[in-house]
Every structure is written in structure tokens, then in C-alpha cells.
Amino acid sequence: MAVGPGALPTFHSVRGVAIGIASAGIKKPGRKDLVVFELAPGSQVAGIFTQNQFCAAPVHVARQHLGAGQPRYLIINTGNANAGTGRQGMSDANACCEALAKEAGVPPEAVLPFSTGVIGEPLPTDKIISAMPELLANLGEDRWEEAASGIMTTDTRPKGSTRQLRLGEHLVTISGISKGAGMIRPNMATMLGFIATDAKLSPALLNQWASELGERSFNRITVDGDTSTNDACMLMSTGQYGGSEIHADSPHAAELKVALQEVYLELAHAIVRDAEGATKFVSIEVSHAGSVKEALDVAYTVAHSPLVKTALFASDPNWGRILAAVGRAGIEDLDLQALEIYLGDVCLVRNGGRADDYREQRGQAVMDREDITIHIDLKRGDVSETVWTCDFSHDYVTINAEYRT
């Protein structure tokens, strides 16, 4: 079950990026569960990681290796998170990096590991290491679609986005994939994102954009309020587009950032649209807040409310649940007479209660849609923020109750 068509685009190959796919049989025999990105020498990588203090061993190792030099390989396994595995987990993550590095002829610090799957189970390193020759033997520039499928766990469909644009005389390509369907909450979520461009970004700009773009996309989605142990979103710049290095004040920097932002948002939205059991894609917009924190506190309180989410699943315009969530968001001195709450373009709440012109059938018409916007106008400042979420269905409970079986 997923919201919207969700068809993969026809990916544009990114110069300087080759992708390999293999089956290690980590959870299911024959499943393509290993993906590797090979980056051209001189490529730069930056990213953001989970803020869960029980972060997985590969998150620790990837952070360490990212700070040690220029990565050449990113290896991703599904079926096992290698989280909650203590010292053995760290040893296993490093062993995978060392094995791939030996096979590829690079230092171990040039390999960044990523894992996703069940928490608390030992990583089957023997299976992964045995599959590495196959992984590197089938490298190709046109394997983005297979990679999108290869990193899936409880996802029902692969997720990808791609763009091409001209910066002066040079054609720039951006392609990316993501995975995630549950245990999704900012900082970050059970998701992985890999975005590559052949533009040549300065290291400072790459780090700045990796943080900013991730914050405004992957850190603005939530499915169930659970922050995972394994999240990562990586931005790769190979510099193979043929032009000069791009800095913050370069003539085409703003244009490139817009294109990257579109890719980030598409990949983040695709996760919510494919959320476990989801039948609705919901945008929660908060306007005229006094601060970013205030706007996000309101948005996430509504987004995480089980009562709001179950009403969304039922297509029930039970606006009292939204009102109650806004009221308990912890906003001091909230002017109840001033704020307004909308469902789509239908005003639900005005002057401290139900809007005089609200009619149930108008609210119902909005709730019957797959894509729904809840707008809360706080009337107390100049800040606006948007969070994207989904409903809670019977299937969400079933999927997570049966996850390990």
C-alpha cells in the first residue's frame, strides 16, 4: 500500500559514479541485498546521520572514515542493521570495510559502510565478504534503478529522483535514491539517502548543502515518531562535469541548489508516500509562528497524534483532534481567538472555535483525497515551516507486529 503512482524516473547517469549490485543472502536467499557506489578519485562526500545515541556500528565507522580522507566507496547492506551489537558490531563493520578496500585496492578509510534491517542481530560478515567480488565485478553507471531496489527493507517500492541542468556551457547531472517506510522521525529516521552530482562543489559548500538540504527535507518527515539507529543521507560530488569548482558565491550556485533541493524533497516525500500502511500523504503547514522551534513544535504535535492519524485513515474530518493537538503543543500565550486552522482550503477553526461557515460536507470532501494539507496560522510571527506525514492504518500495526517473522 502506498500513496500516489510512485514510478521511478529514467535515471541520468552521473559521471564519476559506478554502482554494483550483489546478493549476499543476508535475510532471504537470492535477494539483491548489497549495493556499492564507486566514486572517481577526487570525489567529495558529505552527509548527515542519525542523532539516536544508540546509533549503529556502521554510523560510527562511516563518520570516522568520512573525517579521515576522501571516500571512494560506499557499501550498503539490507536485512541487518548491525545496531545494538556492541564491540562485535564495530569489528564487523570495520571488517567489511577492510575486505572491500583490499578487493578494490584502496585504504579501509576510503570505504563508508551503511546498514539497514533488524536491530540487535549479528552482521553476517562472511556472507557479505564472500559477495564482494561479485559486487565489484558488475559495476556500471546505469544501475541506479537496481540500486534503488537493492536498498529496500519494508518499502513496497523503490524511490528515486534525477535532474539535468546546464550551468553555463556545462551539463550537470543529479541522481539520487532513498529507502524508508517505518521508524521514521527527524534526527533522522529509518531511512537512507544517496544523492550524487557530477558538479564540482567546494568542500565547504558540499558540507553546507548536505546539512541544509537534509534539514529541510529528510528532517521534515515523520511517519510514527520513532528515530532510528541507522539513518544517513549522503551527498556526493564527483567534479566530473568539466567546469570549475563551485563556491557559495559562484554565478550558478543558486540554480544548482534549487535542483538539488528538488531531488532531496522528492526522495523524502517518496518515503512518506510509501510509509508502512499509508493511505494518505499529509502536509502540515504552520505559518506566522514566532520561531522555527514554535512552528515545528506545533507541526510535529499534530503529525504525531495517533488520534489525528487514525482520523486521517478513516477520512473522518474530526477537526477537534487537530485543535486539541495544536492546544497541547506547548506554545506559551497562544492567542486562541487569533489563530486559524484549515483543512485544505476549508477553514475549520476561527475565533477560538469552529468557523461559522464550516460545513461537514466540505471537510469531508478534503478528507476523501489522498493528498491532504492541514494549515495552522498562528498569527504571532513571520516564520513558516512544513512537515510531511501520513495516516495510521491497520496495516501499519500488522507490518510492525510481524516484522521479525
What can you tell me about this protein's structure?
- This protein is an alpha+beta fold.
- It folds into two domains: 257 residues, 4-Layer Sandwich (L-amino peptidase D-ALA esterase/amidase); 121 residues, Roll (Ubiquitin-like (UB roll)).
- The strands form three sheets. Strands 13-12-11-14-10-15 form a six-stranded mixed β-sheet. The protein has a five-stranded mixed β-sheet with strand order 3-9-8-7-6, sandwiched between helices.
- A hairpin with a 2-residue loop joins strand 12 and strand 13.
- Helix 1 crosses helix 2.
Give a nutshell description of this structure.
The chain has 405 residues and is of the alpha+beta class. It is 31% helix and 25% strand. Residues 186-190 have low confidence and may be disordered.
Biggest sheet character: 6 strands, mixed
Q: Per DSSP, what share of the residues sits in E-state strands of 2 or more residues?
A: 15-25%
Overall structural class, as computed from helix and strand content, comes to: alpha+beta
Radius of gyration: 22 Å
**CATH topology tier name of the largest domain:** L-amino peptidase D-ALA esterase/amidase
Low-confidence stretches: 186-190
- Count of DSSP E strands? 15
List the helices and strands and how they pair.
Elements: E1 17-22, E2 34-39, E3 44-49, H1 57-66, E4 73-80, H2 86-104, E5 111-118, H3 125-130, H4 132-137, H5 144-150, E6 159-167, E7 170-179, E8 192-197, H6 203-215, E9 232-237, H7 253-273, E10 281-289, H8 292-303, H9 306-313, H10 319-327, E11 340-343, E12 346-350, E13 353-354, H11 360-367, E14 371-377, E15 383-390, H12 394-401
Parallel strand pairs: 4-5, 8-9, 10-14
Antiparallel strand pairs: 1-2, 2-4, 3-9, 6-7, 7-8, 10-15, 11-12, 11-14, 12-13
Helix pairs in contact: 1-2
